[in-house]
Write a structure and sequence with these properties.
seven-stranded antiparallel β-sheet, alpha+beta
Length: 349
């Protein structure tokens, strides 16, 4: 298997080395040597190292050693997190019901939709087919709500809906109908199951950062030690500069930013955005374009958010290390989801 991959790896190394040489005014040979070192020592894929900006010759070796590859991180996460409860974290239809049972605040679950079978409404009635979905939307849902894949990832498939002058409209402004929406959900081969939930609002202190309705969340990573004590390892805050349906960072490709958080008090320290061309990141104390300061902004409800995820961490044992996405709303922190496998991209610099 490895031998069959050698030609692909060789082509990737050549392409990555040329791209790094052009971007950083260095030689392809020097870039290739660094890419090979990162692969052999820290298990970085060639394109992963390029996207992380780690092929920049200005970065000293001691700093390179602080970065963890996706491969190395997953190996550690598999050691810490039991696959036996993966559906509990990975299936939102299960996750939200479990959190409700153990007293962890999440967005209110309004329904579960299976486009190939029957669904469920918070009123206690089944939801079957496009016509059943129409009645569910028109009779059981508020004026604004969210639908997302139960087993979704990276913000894929998330839609924010609202009624505007009696017409169902996506937050992007595109009008639709319940029947058309149901057909679109059913046509997505990746996700048979969907959850419908309340739409949360940003706290005013957060809403002032970006003029966009996108819900912005903090990623808080917890670890339960062998002594059974939970701790917060680090935190980052997503800046939804792109103004879409989600705040996902996705290696910077979405146009959103990622701010580091001082975990002692919830103060933002700096923010990073992907550089043009996707090679590494530009970092600063303010938002590009507007110049609005980010460094020094204190996240609201921080102590409550930390307390919430530490309590949640204990409720999700035997998974020992989880990445919690927490919305900071006017009414306090709300856990939007958790992740058993979170990537180094979300970590501190």
């Amino acid at each position: 298997m490895r031998l069959r991959r050698l030609p692909d790896q060789a082509r990737a190394l050549v392409a990555v080395s040329r791209a790094a040489a052009a971007a950083y005014d260095t030689s392809p040979l020097r870039a290739a040597r660094r890419a090979r070192t990162l692969r052999m020592r820290q298990h970085f894929e060639y394109r992963e190292a390029l996207a992380e900006g780690l092929l920049d010759p200005a970065i000293p070796d001691e700093e390179l050693r602080r970065h963890g590859s996706r491969h190395a991180t997953v190996l550690e996460q598999r050691r810490l997190n039991s696959e036996a409860i993966a559906p509990l974290a990975g299936e939102k239809a299960v996750f939200y019901r479990y959190c409700e049972a153990v007293g962890i605040r999440t967005p209110r679950l309004l329904g579960v939709i299976d486009t190939s079978a029957s669904g469920w409404s918070h009123t206690g009635l089944p939801v079957v087919g496009a016509e059943g979905f129409r009645r569910f939307v028109e009779e059981d849902l508020p004026d604004s709500w969210v639908v997302k894949p139960s087993a979704g990832f990276h913000g894929a498939g998330v839609r924010v809906l609202e009624r505007r002058e009696g017409r169902l409209t996506e937050v992007s402004g595109r009008p639709t109908t319940p029947q058309a929406l149901f057909r679109e959900l059913a046509a997505d081969p990746r996700f048979p199951g969907w959850v419908v939930q309340e739409r949360l609002a940003n706290h005013p202190d957060i809403a002032g950062l970006i003029d966009a309705p996108t819900l912005q969340t903090a990623r808080l990573v917890t670890l339960v030690g062998r002594d059974g004590a939970p701790e917060l390892l680090y935190a980052v805050f997503r800046i939804a500069a792109a103004g879409g349906a989600t705040d996902n960072f996705l290696q910077g490709a979405t146009g959103n930013g990622l701010a580091s958080v001082r975990i002692s008090d919830g103060v933002l320290e700096s923010v990073k955005f992907a550089r043009e061309g996707g090679l590494g990141f530009a970092r600063g104390d303010a938002l590009p374009g507007s110049g609005l300061p980010v460094a020094g902004v204190r996240l609201p409800h921080w102590e409550e958010a930390v307390s919430l995820v530490l309590r949640a961490a204990m409720a999700f044992l035997p998974a020992r290390s989880l990445g919690w996405d927490v919305a900071l709303t006017p009414d306090g922190p709300v856990v939007v989801e958790t992740n058993m496998f979170w990537w180094p991209r979300s970590g501190p610099e």
